[in-house]
Amino acid sequence: MQKDSEIDKEQLITIGIPCFNAENTIERAIQSALNQDWLNIEVIIVDDFSTDGSCQIIKKIISQDPRARLIIHDDNKGPGAVRGRILSEAKGEFVAFFDDDDESFPERISEQIKLLITYEERTGNNLIACYASGIRRYPNGYTKLLPAIGSRCRGIPYGPSVADYLLYYHRRRGWFYGSGTPTCALLARHSTFSTAGGFDPKLRRVEDVDFAVRLALMNGHFIGTKKRLFVQYTTNTSDKTPEVNLEAEQNLVRKYRDYLIKSKRFNYAYNWPRLRFYHFKKQYIKMFIVFINLFIRYPLSSTRHILTTGSNRLLHEFKINR
């Protein structure tokens, strides 16, 4: 087991924060980055053509701290392009992503690096994505725990089986998939991002899933901290509607069409998001029709999927709306 003293704490770490119309939350996110107990950091904030006061707030916060800098886009390019810009500007050996409406605890970077380096030393693997466990807080006071992928059980998720889970929810026994692969919880070596091709600039949603799928198809490993290291505060924006989510999820499935056809799961992966969409829109007859069609073609997968996720989803929605 590697000791903390063996980790080069002088190594530069990049923290990337995408920002768009976050004037009410961006200060908290930046301060949590600057307050990390890993002292040798650079903080890169990319504002994606905000129309509120975000840029003015950012400039004021970072004016006295040379570790942070702001890049302003002259048009709105979307999350995939923003994260790609951060990677192109990053000088650190490791890159971590914070969201503009989240708050990371001071030990987040040091805990993730310690876990990642220990895993590298123990296994010899060098394509590793490390996710932090966290907490999600809703306006009504409801709190949902966000355990990281790979943070429980004996088996560490890796390889194409992770892509199968992300694309059509095929779960491998003994693996813990936690809260998936959100970029807001991610830290990895810069070389890992480069090897996997970074983030697709054309994607405005699910760019995090797309990156993880590509990494998985390259036999990447997915590990996570047991310790909860950030708080995610829910916000409602125009890019989080059921319509936008449906389009993004189906575009992602189209991107991996050949792989999914080979796996005989393209139809399943493409139509399951429609089931969620009709649920959110309360169009239950259409939802039932989609499920019946999936059940006829994939009886075991669809039954297992609905039994595993359905009750948890309903309970979650009840707690959100109570």
How far is the N terminus from the C terminus? 46 Å
> Could you tell me the strand content as a percent range?
15-25%
| Principal-axes shape call | globular
From the 3D structure, determine the CATH topology of the largest domain: Spore Coat Polysaccharide Biosynthesis Protein SpsA, Chain A
Summary tags:
322 residues, alpha/beta, Spore Coat Polysaccharide Biosynthesis Protein SpsA, Chain A, 2 domains, 9-stranded mixed sheet, 18% strand, globular, disordered N terminus
Describe the structure.
The protein has 322 residues and is of the alpha/beta class. It is globular and about 60 Å long. The chain starts with 12 loop residues before the first strand and ends with a helix. Strands 1, 2, 3, 4, 5, 6, 7, 8 and 9 form a 9-stranded mixed β-sheet that branches. Helices cover 45% and strands 18% of the residues. The chain has 2 domains: 4-233, Spore Coat Polysaccharide Biosynthesis Protein SpsA, Chain A, CATH 3.90.550; 265-321, no CATH class. The longest helix is centred in the last third of the chain and has 23 residues, at 299-321. The protein contains 12 helices and 9 strands. α8 packs antiparallel against α10 (266-280) and α10 runs antiparallel to α11 (284-297). The chain has helices at residues 26-34, 54-62, 79-89, 108-123, 160-168, 190-196, 207-217, 242-255, 257-262, 266-280, 284-297, 299-321, and strands at residues 13-19, 41-47, 68-72, 94-97, 102-104, 128-137, 143-146, 186-189, 221-233.
